[in-house]
Amino acid sequence: MASLLLVLDLAGILVFAISGALLAVRRKLDIIGLLALATLTALGGGWIRDILIGAVPPASLADWRYLLVPVIAALTTFWFHPVVTRRERTVDVLDAFGLGLFCVAGALKAVEYGVGPVPAILLGIVTAAGGGVLRDVVALRVPTVFGPGELYAIPAAAGATIAVVGHELEFPVTPVAVVAATVAVTWRLLAITRGWHAPVPRT
Amino acid sequence: MASLLLVLDLAGILVFAISGALLAVRRKLDIIGLLALATLTALGGGWIRDILIGAVPPASLADWRYLLVPVIAALTTFWFHPVVTRRERTVDVLDAFGLGLFCVAGALKAVEYGVGPVPAILLGIVTAAGGGVLRDVVALRVPTVFGPGELYAIPAAAGATIAVVGHELEFPVTPVAVVAATVAVTWRLLAITRGWHAPVPRT
Amino acid sequence: MASLLLVLDLAGILVFAISGALLAVRRKLDIIGLLALATLTALGGGWIRDILIGAVPPASLADWRYLLVPVIAALTTFWFHPVVTRRERTVDVLDAFGLGLFCVAGALKAVEYGVGPVPAILLGIVTAAGGGVLRDVVALRVPTVFGPGELYAIPAAAGATIAVVGHELEFPVTPVAVVAATVAVTWRLLAITRGWHAPVPRT
């Protein structure tokens, strides 16, 4: 079970890291830029959460495997970015799984550190979307999660909410986490395929 | 007294949050963008201070009322932004009260955590102006507090300095805080009405 | 010895701060912008490291001398920026010494706080280059360290690696630190004078 979770976690990090490295390629950055954006995108959301709840040093700094995955993502993207770019829709789909995993894991970690239910949900969203915000800000792009693209934060909020409510009701953690992540992933994938957007203020 | 302070604090957060949501509207972001920029603008300065002094999780994460206010600000701005935009000068005036409150409260909290007088003043300025810096950076605008608009950080520095000096001289905290906040608010309002600017390097 | 280290540290901060203030001048910011960018550039890398390892409040907040140096840099740049700009190549050369110092000191501080070797090297690079990243992001410039300018992060990585490996092998700290910093400085200076760049993905 623990090793399944580790593999899922590393897989999520890999996909997030690739999206960071791809943006670095588009900005014509060098290998350092690819490495930095890959790492920041993949681990940045968790770092923000860990800093806010006082879980320092963050787990992903203490375990070299978490640092190795963005390096692999950056090098792969460095050599094969035309292939990766052509499959960007595949990256988006895989990214949905990272989203589902991170919003649930992030919210539950916050709960574990004694944070209340509402901030725990917020920190679940931050874990899932925060790395992408850092990636976009550093590359001078208004964060895509803030609109007007397909739904991203709302599925993450749904997953985090289910996880936290299930925890409050003292349901067993594994089935709750699976349901929560499945809802987030499914909602995000439907948003991509059907073109669902969050509402935008009328002008 | 405690409930007066809470109301003032929440009022300051509300005004800051509205300025964040307004910028999100101007950037054509969706409701997620409005919520995120409202929250970041309202609470971001305090979070930076709390992270730097080790007061984690920040109070505004532990108390759901602090998280509710940016939601109200974002939803109000979402539906009524043409009205809010027409009254942007009013938002600026109300923002001056948030500035006065946060620079004093921020500096005193830093002092309470054992930080010396000079860094406490700096952290007071960060509490008042840091949220606006985060708002601007995320929305790809050079932070307005860095110039060349009307004085903002200097009134905050004055308020924080009076609060910290009063604390060092062991004056009673309430009158000192009132004087410090009044100086900051008045100076900021005069800067707005008279068009006072900080000096800019000659070219 | 301790006072030599302090002088070196403050000298490194001064040069980093000048590069921040110069960018603020170019962005036509006011004196507040110069002060903020000088402080962020000079101390921001260390703050990120300290926040991630839990060394809060950061040393540079606890000691007013660290806060005074960016003020001096900002005021000097405010009045004499045409002179400083004409000598920007000199600033680059002096900056190489700051780079060498900070990557080694940053990595060793991380080791001291119980971080493993790989993250300690990463945090050494962050200490040396993080302030510049913050400076660039706030001033809306894609961070220069991410390319495609002359090598910056790679010399920092070399210095941090030598320092950490030397520490792991239990070599005496002073000669290891001197060798590590010398390698980083020399490599960076050679990169500037010979125009060495990190590889960029093929388009």
UniProtKB/TrEMBL annotation, chains A, B, C:
Going by the UniProt record, its keywords in alphabetical order are: Cell membrane, Membrane, Transmembrane, Transmembrane helix
Q: Where are the transmembrane segments?
A: 6-25, 32-52, 64-81, 93-111, 117-138, 150-167, 173-192
Cellular location of this protein? Answer: Cell membrane
Q: Tell me which residues make up the Glycine transporter domain.
A: 7-81, 93-167
Record membrane topology: Multi-pass membrane protein
Cite the InterPro entries for this sequence: Gly_transporter
Which superkingdom does the taxonomy of this entry point to?
Bacteria
Q: What is its main location?
A: membrane
GO CC aspect terms: plasma membrane
The Swiss-Prot or TrEMBL record describes its family as follows: Belongs to the UPF0126 family.
- What is this protein called in UniProt? Putative membrane protein YeiH
Query: What broad taxonomic lineage does this protein's source fall under?
Result: Bacteria, Bacillati, Actinomycetota, Actinomycetes, Propionibacteriales
